Each structure stands twice: as structure tokens, then as C-alpha cells.
Amino acid sequence: MKVPGIRRPSWKRPAGLSGWQRIAVIVGLAVVLLATMSVAATARVSASSGRILAGVTVAGVDVGGMTRDEAVAAVKATTEPKLRRGVFVVGGGKRWPVTPAGLGHGAGVEQAVDAAVAGPELSWFKDFWHRLTNKPVGHSVDVALATDDTKVTRFVKALAPKLAVAPTNASIKLVDGKVVKQKAKDGRVLDVEASTRALAKALRGNARKVKLVTRPVDPKVTNDKLGKTIEINLSTNRLTFYDGLKVRKVYPVATGQPSFPTPQGTWEVVYKRVNPTWTNPAKDGWGADMPASIPPGPGNPLGTRAMSLNASGILIHGTYASYSIGSYASHGCIRMLLSDVEALYPQVPMGTPVLIHR
Questions:
Q1: Is the separation of the CB atoms in 228 and 242 below 8 Å?
Q2: Of 14, 17, 35, 297, which one has the fewest beta carbons inside 10 Å?
Q3: Which of 114, 146, 178 is the last residue of a domain?
Q4: How far is Cα of residue 180 from the mean position of the Cα atoms in its chain?
Q5: Is residue 24 part of a domain?
């Protein structure tokens, strides 16, 4: 129906894109999108190519995403304090402070980081994928510890003389005119090989103290091997007989007159005689009115037993003049009661020390 005065507008349906044209547009947009994504991905991968893959650790330190220099600094911050840590070497009541670094220990940090930078063996695609997605690879690298056993051994050897203790033999001696008894004591020597092993192990670990290994050194003369000793005290006129360090018997004796004193010092028994013949030692002196010799028996000045010392003319012998025991009555010899000298005689071996003092 037509309305008077109004004109109906006329228009045409625009011509639509054909099917192939629509496909071309979609493909073009996809290409542009892929190109954009490719550029972005390439840029991201390129940016991470100089960095370590995510998930890589060196000596327990996560270095993923770091540059080589950053990783070296991070790992050294962990390893160097361990190399500078104080370790006390103890032995013989003394101690010496050392550090692993001071004894030649070091850490191959840069070599380990280089291995971390190289990463695990991946195909180019997997490497590209991990760098694109930042997905961890789960790869760990250990830091090799560098050691210098020569330095450790040299250090331990230098301590050997400081820890060495010579063994002490059992003895009974005259020291400044006094009898000194000394029990046997073990010595000590440093076991360099075992101590070096112990120290090297401590430096590799986390120990703060390491004890040096020592071995005892036996004395040549122990208490039970000391043997016999005779002590003569001129102040008390007593003869003390020792077996080792133990006193076996104390005997009263007579010693030299003031004009013929018994010589003090350390002597030894060099000759023994049963029923000795007395030979006049001073024909032109105090023995001028005595015979040249007196055979064994009553009246013999040497009694029934005599033991000569390496002090000229001095003997430990018996006497029939028992009344003189306890006094200064001899010409330098040590007189004993017959029963005492006969009991002592078989117990005294040749070479027995005789200590005479006041």
C-alpha cells in the first residue's frame, strides 16, 4: 500500500565475502599471531640463553636463572666459609688452630658452575622448551674439593718433636749427694701417618676439633727390671738393700774413721769372695805392724764374705769385731755383722750399684 507523499527508500544487500576470502583472512590473522608469538618466544629464549636453566643446583645452591658470575658468587658464599672455618688440632695438652684453606684445601666452584651453565644433556627442542616455559630440569652439580695431602703431612710432621716425650727409666741414683728414686714412665711419640689421616678427614668434613694420634714408648728399664741396689748412709751407718724400688732389708754397718773416710759416690760391685784371705793393703802405713796376709777363719779382718767395689781398696765385708758395728771404725771399708753379710752376699750380683752418701 502506498502512502501518499512518502517515498520508500531503496537499498541493496552488500556483497558478502566468499568462502575462500574468509579462509584467507583467518589464515592471515593466524600467521600474524604465530609470528608475534614466535618473536616473543624467541626473545624470551634468547634472553635466557646466557643463564642457567631453572632447577639446576650447585652444591645445594639453587642457581637457576643466574648468570655464570652470579652463580659463582652465590656458590662461593656457601663454600668459602667452610674452607675458612677454624679447626683445632689437639694433642699433649696443647692445641693448634688451623683452617682447611690454610692446609691447602680449596673448592672447584668455577668448574662446577661451568657444568651448571652447560646444564644436562638435552635436545635443542627440550632446551628451547625449558627456557620458554621455565620448567625446572632437576639437575644438581657437586663442587669438587681440592686437597693438598703434602701440606697436611708437613704440618703434622712439624708437630712430632713438640709432642715427643722420652720414656723415663726406673732408677735409684745419687743426685747432689741425695738418693733419688724414679719410677719408670712411658714416653710418647706422634703417629704421623694416623694423625695425618685423622686431620685430613676432619678438614674434609665439618669437624671443629681433631685429636692427634700418639703411641706410648716403653722405658728400657721398668720398675720390675731395675735390679738390685745398695745404699750406704754414712750419717746413720745404715746399709739399705733394694730390689727394684723396694727396700728388702736395712743393715747396721761400720764405716771409715775420720782419718780414713769411706769415699762417697756411685760405685759398683766388681768382685766377690767367700772366706777370703786378707792381704795387707798398707804395709808401710797403718798395717805396718800386721802380717802380710791372714787366711780365712777367726781373726780375719774380712770375716767370711767380701764384696769389692771399684773404689780402690774399698770392700763390703763381714767382721769378727761385732762391737764396731754402728761406729766409724774401719780404714774406709763397710763392715757388717757376719750373719748379715752372709745373708746379703748371695743376693748381690756382680755390677750391683753401690751409692755411698752422707
A1: yes
A2: 14
A3: 146
A4: 33
A5: no
Locate 181 and state its grid cell: 728414686
**pTM flag (> 0.70):** no
Domain residues for the domain of 138 are: 50-83+104-146
Residue 290 in domain = yes
pLDDT recorded at residue 27: 57
Residues 240 and 329 both lie in one domain:
yes
pLDDT at residue 204, rounded to an integer: 87
Q: Is residue 246 in a domain?
A: yes
Q: How confident is the model at residue 19 (pLDDT cuts 50, 70, 90)?
A: low
CATH code, domain with 240: 2.40.440.10
Q: Is the pLDDT of residue 35 over 50?
A: no
Encoded amino acid at 247, one letter:
V
Residue 141 covered by a domain: yes
d(CA 358, CA 356): 7
Q: What is the number of structural domains in the chain?
A: 2
160-180 pLDDT, tens digit each: 999 999 999 999 999 999 999
What is the rounded CA–CA span in Å between residue 195 and residue 162?
14
Strands 139-141 and 56-58: parallel
